[in-house]
Write a structure and sequence with these properties.
The complex is a heterodimer.
Chain A (H helix, E strand, L loop, with lengths): L1 H10 L3 H23 L2 H8 L29 E4 L6 E5 L2 E12 L7 E9 L6 E7 L5 E8 L3 E5 L4 H7 L3 H4 L15 E11 L5 E9 L15 H37 L1 H16 L2 H11 L4 H13 L3 H13 L2 H8 L4 H40 L7 H10 L8 H29 L1 H4 L2
Antiparallel strand pairs in A: 1-9, 2-3, 3-8, 4-7, 4-9, 5-6, 5-8
Chain B lengths: L1 H6 L1 H38 L4 H20 L8 H19 L5 H13 L18 H36 L4 H9 L7 H15 L17 H39 L2 H9 L3 H10 L3 H26 L4 H10 L3 H29 L11
Helix pairs in contact in B: 2-5, 2-14, 3-4, 6-9, 6-12, 8-9, 8-12, 10-11, 12-13, 12-14, 13-14
Classes of the chains: A alpha+beta, B mainly alpha.
């Protein structure tokens, strides 16, 4: 354990290394938490979108934007009929229900949408509801009458007839104080949507959820498909770390072994390795990755495979070769040869471990490069088709012109996480570089 | 050494030229083979080992069927006749594109054409002037890429060398420590900073255009056109500059510091030579070849990064072209772009070899036989 303690003692001397290490450790912790809290299958299923997100607002900013002053933006309000005190009046052949869906509205801005979700249980005859909006000042607005199917959504904010009657969009008009003119103000207080329902069967039931979609949501906000961005930001962490780490390990180790094999055997093997490396250096890596992504599949694991495959014969071989050449001539290798050690033993046990410490810093600084590569591919639209990643969030944001529409959070959140990851590994790597390469330490 | 020097002038000069020529020829040949293999690999990947041809066959059949069905002159035909007509048209098209030959044969054909820069005709894309020749399309895009990336590279290179030299002169100063602390910021690529720059300078404070190369409609006069292009270049340039300047300064500074602790530099200092002279003659001159190497390596690295930065800034260069071509499955354009990239890289490597041989007398010209 003592070499580790020694390393830690040296690392402590560099504040940036401690900060970098702290970032890396917290990212790893976040990944572990994410993978346990939201299993892989569940994350993919959730990110597919659809019905389950219908109670979430579209393009809501994160809730913390209101902490920095500015108007108190509404959160999403859900009023459930189960919790409301319904009045029942039986009559011949049915019941009349009066359900008040009341809520206190105390925000500075109007909601982004209003929907009413209705679920009815009946045999043959559909229930019938009449909706009326009661504002705190006693004003009432009739919202029409509907026959209710088993599952029905009434989009109050998209009711064009209502919009014409109010002279403005319903989610503004219903909640506005009278006499606001061009710039309507919110009417604070207890609003109520009263449902007068008639059910025609004795065991028929009617449930309703009134949703006033907010303009802010949760820690991370939501995207254009109402999905909570927190899911993508959380799941992006393990994906980014896994991609970066596997790619860095995969390329470094294979490159190192190949360089060592070339140095040890020399001759035509070495020459062949050198020539392959030169061919590989001429192949434009990113265009080929883009090509593979468009023509074959954009699965993140395939991309990872291609990255590693192209990384095997990378320019690093030349560097490792230069480091390994003097090692080959050293006395302990000669000793190993003298007692009859096998080729693989000499390469794997004696040559590679000798230069491994020097490679650690470079290895750490490689990781953010691969993390950003994954994001780059996603930004080009070649992200994994099912997995939520930071790059895909950025890509969605770009495709929806998030900056143009003022949804800055959508770009800034994944960007901040990417930057944090990059900085964490880079700061750690730079400090390790000075510890492992004593020539730099004096400087 | 002195005996050698007296014999040298006449015969030695010729021998040198011969040796350099042999060296250049050898390197050119090696690079040619390298490019050959690289381009062939790209052709194999771009064609998905021949699968693209099957897709094309389906497309040809659809197009032929559509054309026959649309044409009123064939309306009177019965189904059998019409099918025969479609079949014969497909056959003609297949022969024209030589899809009937096995893929391996055609791949060598493609290779031969690609190496001669006979890049063929695009299937979907066309140049702004309307030409279908891949060569024209690329010729239209290449200057934009060269302009942007050439400027950025030169800027980063010279600024970082000069700043690094001045920092190495007084290392440990506050400025020096700031630059070291900022070096990890280069972990993020240029397009990443580009997004922030667009956010700040195109949307929050709308001073500069968010993308493109020139405003629409383009200005009439040449000077205005150039000024407008320069205005559009500021943000992408700044993005590339930001993402690579600190790491570049950092590594040069370290490099110069290591070199300025060499004995011969100490000796020059002890002699009391002016520091400018020491920098020029004792630090820059011996380190020139590594400097050139890293410049060339930076060029190689940046060719690849072009795609995304161009995409983010909507810059009409090779990267954007490649991306569109891939979206449209336009194989000739894809191969051509990869070929051009490969040639650019090979040319960079070749230049590097030659410069190395000229700058560093220790490099053995005749392939290590000495």
């Amino acid at each position: 354990m003592s070499p580790w303690r020694e390393l830690w003692r040296q690392l402590r001397e560099y504040p940036s290394a401690v900060a970098g290490l702290a970032i890396v450790v917290s990212l790893v912790g976040l990944s572990v938490y994410t993978v346990i809290a939201i299993p892989y299958a569940k994350a993919i299923d959730l990110w597919r979108g659809g019905e389950r997100w219908q109670m979430y607002p579209v393009n809501a900013s994160p809730a913390w934007v209101t902490w920095f002053g500015g108007p108190n933006l509404p959160r999403t309000i859900v009023v459930e009929s189960r919790a409301a005190a319904a009045e029942e009046q039986p009559f011949e052949g049915g019941r009349q229900l009066s359900i008040p869906l009341a809520f206190d509205f105390d925000y500075d801005a109007f909601p982004s949408e209003i929907n009413l979700f209705l679920r009815a249980q009946y045999q043959d005859r559909q229930p019938f509801v009449r909706l009326t909006w009661h504002a705190p000042d006693g004003r009432t607005v009739p919202l029409g009458a509907h026959r209710i199917a088993r599952e029905q959504r009434i989009s109050i904010s998209q009711d064009l007839a209502l919009e014409r009657r109010l002279g403005m969009t319903p989610q503004v008009g219903l909640l506005a104080a009278p006499g606001g003119g061009e710039r309507p103000q919110v009417q604070r207080g207890r609003h109520e949507l009263r449902m007068e329902a008639i059910v025609f069967e004795p065991d028929a039931r009617l449930d309703a959820d009134l949703v006033l979609y907010g303009r802010v949501h949760g820690l991370a906000g939501t995207d254009h498909q109402r999905r909570d961005l927190l899911l993508a930001l959380l799941w992006g962490t393990p994906v980014a770390l896994a991609f970066g780490l596997i790619a860095a390990v995969g390329t470094t180790i294979t490159t190192l072994i190949i360089a060592a094999v070339g140095v040890w055997f020399g001759g035509w093997i070495d020459a062949a390795i050198q020539r392959i490396t030169e061919v590989n250096m001429i192949l434009p890596m990113l265009p080929i990755l883009v090509m593979v992504g468009t023509l074959y599949s954009t699965s993140i694991w395939l991309m990872l495979g291609v990255v590693v495959a192209f990384g095997i014969f990378s320019a690093g071989i030349k560097m490792y070769r230069a480091m390994l050449l003097p090692v080959r001539e050293s006395a302990y290798i000669e000793a190993a040869r003298a007692y009859g050690a096998s080729h693989s033993r000499i390469i794997l046990r004696y040559m590679i471990p000798r230069i491994l410490p020097v490679l650690v810093p470079g290895f750490v600084t490689l990781i953010p490069g691969f993390v950003f590569l994954e994001a780059s591919l996603a930004v080009l639209g070649l992200g994994d088709p099912v997995l939520p990643t930071w790059g895909k969030v950025l890509n969605d944001a770009q495709a929806q012109s998030a900056l143009y529409n003022g949804h800055y959070y959508w770009v800034l959140e994944p960007a901040a996480l990417l930057m944090l990851t990059g900085l964490g590994f880079a700061m750690l790597g730079f400090a390790l570089d000075r510890i492992f390469n004593p020539r730099l330490r004096a400087i | 050494m002195s005996a050698n020097a007296t014999q040298r002038p006449a015969a030695g000069w010729l021998a040198d030229v011969r040796r350099i020529a042999a060296f250049v020829a050898l390197r050119l040949f090696a690079l040619f083979v390298t490019v050959l293999i690289g381009v062939y690999l790209s052709i194999l990947i771009a064609n998905m080992g021949g699968k693209v041809d099957e897709l094309r066959l389906v497309q040809i059949r659809l197009a032929a069927a559509e054309a026959v069905r649309e044409d009123p002159t064939f309306r009177a035909m019965n189904d059998a006749e019409r099918n025969r007509l479609i079949e014969s048209r497909v056959q003609l098209e297949v022969e024209r594109l030589r899809l009937d030959q096995p893929f391996i044969v055609r791949s060598f054909d493609y290779l031969y054409q690609a190496m001669r820069l006979d890049l063929g005709r695009a299937e979907h894309l066309h140049s702004d002037a309307g030409a279908r020749e891949v060569y024209r399309i690329i010729a239209e895009r290449l200057p934009a890429t060269l302009l942007l990336f050439g400027t950025a590279n030169l800027l980063v290179f010279f600024v970082s060398i000069f700043v690094a030299l001045s920092l190495s002169r007084r290392y440990g100063s506050r400025l020096d420590r700031t630059v070291i602390a900022l070096a990890p910021s280069s972990a993020a690529p240029g397009w990443f900073y580009g997004i922030f720059l667009i956010l700040i300078f195109a949307f929050l404070v709308p001073l500069l255009p968010p993308g493109g190369m020139v405003r629409a409609p383009p200005p009439e006069s040449r000077i205005e056109y150039a000024l407008d292009v320069a205005r559009h270049m500021i943000l992408p340039l700044a993005a590339m500059f930001l993402s690579s300047i600190f790491i570049s300064i950092y590594s040069w500074r370290t490099f110069f510091l290591i070199h300025s602790s060499e004995d011969y530099v100490e000796m020059a200092r002890a002699k009391g030579l002016p520091s400018r002279l020491i920098e020029r003659r004792y630090i820059l001159r011996p380190t020139l070849s590594p400097i050139i190497t890293s410049f060339a390596l930076m060029l190689i690295g940046l060719w690849g990064g072009a795609i995304i930065l161009e995409q983010v800034f909507n810059w009409p260069g090779l990267g954007t072209l490649l991306f569109r071509a891939i979206g449209l499955r336009d194989t000739p354009v894809i191969i051509a772009t990869v070929v051009i990239f490969a040639y650019l890289l090979a040319f960079t490597v070749f230049l590097l070899d030659i410069l190395y041989a000229i700058l560093d007398p220790r490099v053995k010209l005749d392939g290590g036989a000495r």
